[in-house]
Design brief:
The chain has helices at about 1-20, 20-25, 40-45, 45-50, 105-110, 130-140, 140-145, 160-170, 175; strands at about 50-55, 100-105, 120, 155, 160, 180, 190-195, 195-205, 210-215, 220-225. The chain is α+β, with helices and mostly antiparallel strands. It has 2 domains: about 1-100, no CATH class; about 140-225, no CATH class. Strands 7-8-9-10 form a 4-stranded antiparallel sheet. Strands 1-3 form a two-stranded antiparallel sheet. The chain has a two-stranded antiparallel sheet with strand order 2-6. The longest helix has 17 residues, at about 1-20. One heme C binds near residues 40, 60, 85 and 119.
């Protein structure tokens, strides 16, 4: 009762100061559990405290993705389950890129959560691990480590061009590839960053290879033979 009175006094003083109750509502955005009167994040602190918290949770809001009504959450935890575990929920706020020319297959599976935590994590962009490691959760390391190859596509004859670029010269995968989607084939991005240096790439695939016009070196091509 006392806290309720304090709250009312607080709210009234805000109305007095700003002349409108709308201000009061929009200034307190954190989603509150109606039954206990507690903000959700108080009981679920890990969702908002890891080093990298999703900007979508900046105001500690849960309603965009969770149900927050329907009964007593304490006796039935699943009441407040997420509305949808597929990418659909992400597309409420992020662009759907799956109509682009080249799309990374996990996005076609409607799976953002295979790489991103929805709330927060220890890594930038709420990834489950550093980018360097992430690629090799699903791709073979030999893609980069072998100097000669007949298996991989980015090669000139048997010279493994992934080895030359991403191995010997340590160019990050995401300098050339967009992790989600691109208007150029094989997820080749038009603009990338190599460390602090901006890179432009115009890429066309050919039957047995490709042509690259890049800001890093002269226009060139490769052929698998
Ligand atoms: C951007 C969408 C989004 C927002 C906003 C969001 N969640 Fe979630 N939440 C999810 C998704 C997706 C899952 C399912 C994760 C899975 O099953 O891997 C989930 C699962 C959970 C779970 C159960 C599984 C787990 O990871 O422990 C809890 C608890 C939870 N959320 C709490 C919260 C709270 C509290 C808030 C608000 C402070 C919140 N969430 C805001 C998307 C969101
Ligand atoms: C008084 C503490 C408390 C509050 C407030 C609270 N929760 Fe929970 N919640 C729990 C407990 C305890 C569990 C069960 C253990 C767990 O999964 O963390 C739980 C479980 C969950 C789960 C997992 C459900 C599942 O099926 O696995 C979600 C999602 C969730 N809460 C969302 C929310 C949201 C959204 C709010 C605010 C509207 C909220 N919680 C408020 C204590 C709380
Ligand atoms: C309620 C709106 C909302 C929803 C739903 C949402 N996001 Fe976000 N997200 C944002 C905003 C706002 C930003 C910051 C601006 C930006 O990068 O677009 C952001 C940024 C991100 C970032 C970049 C890192 C960061 O936090 O700035 C990632 C990664 C991300 N979101 C993933 C997801 C995934 C995965 C889902 C679905 C589970 C999702 N988002 C659903 C609003 C949302
Ligand atoms: C295969 C792993 C993977 C999948 C699947 C994935 N992402 Fe990402 N995402 C990443 C990586 C890696 C980065 C960091 C990119 C960088 O460093 O340039 C990132 C960055 C982001 C960012 C911030 C930078 C930007 O591009 O705007 C957002 C927002 C984002 N992802 C949303 C999503 C959404 C929404 C989905 C599902 C539709 C999704 N991601 C699926 C790996 C993934
Ligand atoms: C969750 C699994 C997963 C992760 C993580 C992942 N990929 Fe993929 N990726 C796939 C699948 C599946 C394919 C399709 C089969 C193949 O080409 O290996 C693919 C294909 C590709 C392609 C070829 C696309 C084309 O159209 O030819 C590129 C390029 C690529 N991934 C880059 C990356 C990079 C760079 C990373 C790390 C930043 C990464 N992937 C992380 C699953 C993943
Ligand atoms: C210098 C630019 C460049 C860098 C850096 C680069 N790639 Fe590629 N990658 C390409 C090109 C070009 C192709 C298309 C090859 C083809 O099909 O002709 C490709 C194709 C791929 C494919 C499709 C399968 C295959 O056998 O070729 C995958 C998977 C892939 N890259 C992953 C990666 C990963 C992971 C990294 C980082 C370790 C990386 N790439 C770094 C340019 C690059």
């Amino acid at each position: 009762m006392e806290t309720l009175m304090k709250k009312t006094v607080f709210a009234l003083s805000l109305v007095f100061l700003f002349g409108s109750t709308c201000y009061v509502q929009s200034s307190i955005a954190a989603t509150v559990d109606a039954v206990t009167g507690k903000p959700c994040y108080k009981c679920h602190a890990s969702k908002v405290t890891a080093p990298f918290v999703h900007s979508g949770l900046a105001d500690k809001e849960c309603t965009p993705c969770h149900n927050t009504t329907g009964g007593n959450h304490q006796s039935n935890h699943s009441l407040y389950a997420v509305k949808d575990k597929s990418s659909k929920i992400c597309y409420e706020c992020h662009d759907d890129q799956t109509k682009m020319k080249s799309v990374h297959p996990p996005l076609l599976d409607n799976d953002c959560l295979v790489c991103h935590a929805p709330h927060a994590s220890n890594f930038k962009y709420q990834l489950g691990m550093p980018v360097k490691q992430l690629c090799f959760e699903c791709h073979e390391r030999s893609l980069v480590t072998e100097k000669e190859t007949k298996n991989n596509s980015f090669r000139d004859g048997v010279t493994n061009l992934h080895n030359i670029h991403a191995g010997e010269n340590k160019i990050p995968c995401l300098t050339c590839h967009d992790i989600h989607a691109s208007d150029q084939l094989h997820l080749i991005r038009k603009k990338g960053m190599n460390g602090k240096e901006a890179v432009t790439i115009t890429y066309t695939a050919t039957d047995k290879g490709g042509n690259c016009t890049v800001s890093c070196h002269d226009a060139t091509s490769y052929e698998r033979k």
